[in-house]
Protein 1
Amino acid sequence: MKYDKISGFADEIAEGVDTQFRVLQKLNISYFEPRGIDGKNIADLSDEEAEALKEKMEQAGIRVSSIGSPIGKIRLDEDFEAHFRKFQRVVEVAKKLDARYIRMFSFYRPAKPDSAEGAASGAERETAQDWSAEEREEVIGRLRRMTAYAKEQDVVLLHENEKDIYGDTAERCADLMKELSCEHFRAVFDSANFVQCGQDTKEAYEKLEKFISYVHIKDAFLEDGKVVPAGAGDGNVEYILKSLLDNGYDGFLSLEPHLGSFAGLASLELDDKMLDLPQGGEGTFTLAYRALEEIVDKIIE
């Protein structure tokens, strides 16, 4: 690999961090994006567990590229104060692990009554997905408060475009960046997630390029949203990476393969279409790495 800032969600290799680090070392990857650590979410680690993780990182020569947190992945009608406390805890864990970046999201819409969802169809469903002005203001208000705290603590929030949250489309991601972008609130660019929202990733890239500080590496098909190795789908991954690198990008490229099932996957997805995939692990993570390596080595000759 002709690029050294490669990272990844190593919990897609295995639940246990020892196995995660063994495989990362085999692939000469020196960073990871911690999310699942020995069966626990990174946000739920105790001080002792965070310290033990830091010790294992030092022994393995692995550093954190960004905390793969679940922050912002709740509905607007859920308890934000409790969630904000979890966010503060994530910041504490990030500092213990010497991580300045924290991946996060921009909230789901309030739950709809089952009867209303069942009655909606066609254009009615499309309208049901629109965000009201009040919901938008609530999202931005929450993120503004979190960004202010991030500034106090000198960490950087990285907003990931994710299907069904406020910032799922390029337009709404650009809206968030227009309102909030600063050195403590920046964008993750995830091609596969944009594809799964029916977005043209080249257009999304043009809208968001100046805000991108981190990249997730995965690809997908427009037809059915199936996740595939980088370069094999409709995400224009090679085009986007070449544009970024040609324009001086020197940030992380973080593998999020999603090519097989892994511990915690069910809690990350709103639907079950990924649960039928083959068992994930070292093989699928390595496949994702090799696909990225081929693209990067072609770009950097």
Note: Residues 115-128 have pLDDT under 50 and may be disordered.
Protein 2
Amino acid sequence: MEFAYSFAGLLVGFVVGLTGVGGGALMTPILIVIFGIPPVVAVSTDLIYASVTKSGGVFAYARKQLIAWRVVILLLLGSIPGSLLTLNYLKGFADLSQIEHLMNLTLGFSLILTSIAVFGRNRIREFALQQESKPWVSSARKIRPYVTFVMGLVLGCLVTLSSVGAGALGTALLITLYPRMSMPTIVGTDLFHAVILTGVAGAGHYTMGSVDLALLGYLLIGSLPGVFVGSYLGAKLSPKVMQPIMGSVLFAIGLRFVLAG
């Protein structure tokens, strides 16, 4: 079983490197559906797994000054309180089955939203750029910091409940709000925010005693080389081919969780 966990980490790391889609969108469903890990343990462990695996990429973006720190702060002002409130809400449940039901539903809807974000990332960017010249957009910029804060709050709740949403969904929302920001800066900004958010949420789940440290170790052993190989091959493959495939897979998995919930 230990080898199977590491192989799952290798597979997910490879796909993440290949497509850029967040590991939580794949790892949590694999742990629940294939390995039969309880949703609470799967989500909790995957949050720390995501924080560790994504942290390596942050330094490269920071060195190249591809992180919009003001946007990161606005996101964290919403997402950290959102995560802490969600953790406090979960601690109020006396019945574990209620938590698992809520997590399954949230996971399903988060995966469906992520699949839409993967499918439509380029179209979302094109549409947002087309709207930039409209008069109402200039007025809307005044409330953009507040919208960014609310976006962080929503992501904080979703990620804490499902471990999904900090990657592709966060990127799609940033593209919508900041269409003139370069894609590398959007990715770097979203990545840094995701590392902090998943770390805080994972630490909160750890205090609840739902993180499996042994499982976490086996996943990391496989994922690190997987990300390296996937990144190497991903540079040679067209996103136009990979994005529809990943979007379809995530939509199907998300639908399964929604119907099962």
Note: Residues 41 and 209 are 9 Å apart (CA to CA).
Protein 3
Amino acid sequence: MPMAVDGEAIALIGYGEAAAAITGGWPLPRKAFRAYDVKTREPVTAEAMWARYEAAGIAGCGEIAEAIGAARLVLSLVTADRAVEAAGAGAPHLTPGALFIDGNSCSPASKSEAARLVEAAGGRYVDMAIMAPVHPKGHRVPVLLAGPHAEDALAVLTALDMDATLAGPEVGQASAIKMLRSVMVKGFEALTAECLLAARRAGVEDAVLASLQASDPGTDWRARSAYNLERMMVHGVRRAAEMEEVGKTVAALGLPPRMSAAIAAWQRQVGSLALEGGAADLAERADRLNAGLGSKSG
């Protein structure tokens, strides 16, 4: 790997599900990581965040400057709405020439703004798009890389046993693929909620599922629908933030982001209920969601 790996070699900005899953599989000792997450500054979540650092065996930091320190590789994995903020907060503390890999689900415009901040501080910005759920693949989840320093990042991530592919030489090329794909993926989830929660209320979900199965026998509609609801229940708030970035992407291309806005609304409403995924049972999930949504639409 074309960089030394020592106790301060790698900084993580954001230590949620994605960061833990990806870096947890890297062939490096835990002491190689220093992490900062904004949740350590929020009284409600700070204690749990410190516990996560301890359980993972990594160095948790109370300040972003402490985490970045002498790091030569910085991986940013925060929520989409805070990605530019994270780049701006971290940029002044970057070692000259450090790779700043931005794996957040943001619009090309947001990635470009983050790149401007990082490059102005002497860092090397890389647009990274995560193209599948991080579980169960972990660090082997497929990622796309773009920007003038993408080939350097590819060499580093390949050495870390990641499944990385070049998307292009311009910042935003990887994120554009991710954003526009999300219209379909997150949209399918939102359609599932609107279709099958209503069908459950009407008492016709079995007939609706049977009709879908007959139209598309290659899909297990009951299982896929249960999975789609679970994605929204567990990750809906984060997915809504991503869909807002998708809307910006579509609008910047001169098209009305009508679907993106509707998808974001459904994702946020379901995710805001803060329900556990529970058993992989469509009817049980639908009943809990319908109870949480009440009798009036949001």
Note: The first helix runs from residue 17 to 23.
